[in-house]
Each structure stands twice: as C-alpha cells, then as structure tokens.
Amino acid sequence: MEDFENRIGPAVEEFVRWSSPVLQFARFVTEDTEINGYPVGAGDRVGLFYCSANRDESVFDEPGQFKLQHSPNPHLRFGGSGPHFCLGNQLAKTELRNLFRELLTRLKTVEFGQAPSGVRPVGDIMRVEVDLDKCTGHGICESIADDVFEVQDDGTVLIHENERPETDRDRMQQAVTQCPAAALRLVD
Ligand code: HEM
Questions:
Q1: Residues 6+ apart with CB under 8 A from 150
Q2: Which tens digit of pLDDT belongs to each residue from 114-161?
Q3: What is the pTM of this model?
Q4: Distance (Å, whole) CA 99 – CA 101
Q5: Which of 18, 34, 67, 121 is the most buried (most CB within 10 A)?
C-alpha cells in the first residue's frame, strides 16, 4: 500500500500489458496497401497479435517481466489508435484501480485458492461427466481415482467433485480411456 495512489496508475498499465485479456483480432483490409513492406490487398484478412506487440523487445526492456518501470507504457492492449480503439478502456482501468484498492485495504491476507464449484477459470478446470445410461459400474475409474469415482450399490458411478483442476488431467484421462462402457468424458 506504500504510495498506492502514485503506483497504481503505472501498475494498471503494466497489468494490462503483461496479462493477455485480448490476444488477437482479425481485420479485413479495405484497400490495397502494404504493411511493413508486405503487400496486402483489399479483402485480405490480417491478424493483429496484441500479445506479441506487447512483448516487443524493441519497445519494452525485459518484456517478459512485470515491471512498474515500464513507464511510459506504450502497450497496445486496447488497440493501437484509430476509430476502433477500445471504448471501455477508461472503465476497465478504473475497475482495476478500484479492485486493487479494495483488495489491499479490505483483506488482511490474500492467497491462491480453488475456484468455487460452478466457476470455471478458462483453461484451469475441466469437467468429468458420466453418462448413466451407459455406465455399468465396472469400477475401473474407482480403482484409478477413488477420491473422485465411487461405484454405488445400484451399479452406477457417482462423481464426487466433477470439476477437476488441470493437475488431475492425467488421472481423469486414464479413467475416461479405460472405462469399458465408454461412459465417462472430459469437458474442457
Ligand atoms: C482490460 C479490459 C479490456 C481490454 C484488454 C479490451 C481490449 C479491446 C481491444 C483490443 C479492442 C479492439 C481495438 C482495436 O481494434 O483497435 C476493444 C474494442 C472495444 N472494447 Fe474493449 N477491452 C477491455 C474492456 C472493455 C470494456 C470494459 C468495455 C465496455 C464496457 C469495452 C468495450 C469495447 C468496445 C465497444 C470496443 C469496440 C470499439 C469499436 O470497434 O469501435 N472494452 N477492446
């Protein structure tokens, strides 16, 4: 919190540069022209890789590092310039400033944890599902992960926590592949 008001501005710019809220966009070229010496024709599609531009070593010193010293911070996270520049950029930055102010003043400690069930951070959580019409209660899945799968008296499998962290992928994949009834599946 030391000097919060003076540091949060550059910090927000650096959060936005360093993280990747929008990775890329595509745009259609409206007239024949060239980009960096490469000819492009009207109707061509070009990719805008904001994620790459924001790690450009010719612009940022140690671009892979999160550094408050990246100030001024000419990131392209909200677009470059022009008519499509993000309309919500000021709102997004205000939200980030206030989020960190509240986080740092209201909470005594902050730790990494697991998202509550029902909330899926993209890429971090997968879902294991069982098709009860197919399940024969063979139990191979239980022998692979008895903390997750439990064969019930009625011969079907109960999944205790069907949202699993990415670190569980190998075990879950094994259960899916080995299920003789092909009753399990993983949903990313
Ligand atoms: C960190 C959060 C955000 C990021 C990284 C972001 C990023 C972007 C990017 C890269 C573009 C395209 C710019 C271009 O093509 O030049 C864009 C456009 C846009 N953004 Fe955001 N944005 C964010 C938050 C928001 C919010 C909170 C709103 C509205 C409440 C918003 C509304 C828009 C709109 C309406 C456009 C289209 C503008 C146009 O095409 O004329 N954005 N944003």
A1: 142, 157, 158, 160
A2: 766 655 555 577 889 999 999 998 899 999 999 999 999 888 899 998
A3: 0.64
A4: 6
A5: 18
Q: Same domain for 20 and 94?
A: yes
Q: Is the C-beta atom of 23 inside 6 A of ligand 1?
A: no
Interval between CA 147 and ligand 1 midpoint (Å): 43
| 17 CB-near residues (< 8 Å, 6+ apart) | 54, 60, 70, 73, 75, 77
Number of domains observed in the structure of the chain: 2
Domain, as residue range, for 48: 4-106
Inside any domain, residue 136 = yes
Cβ of 79 below 6 Å from ligand 1: yes
Residue 50 tokens read as 């904001």
Do 74 and 152 share a structural domain?
A: no
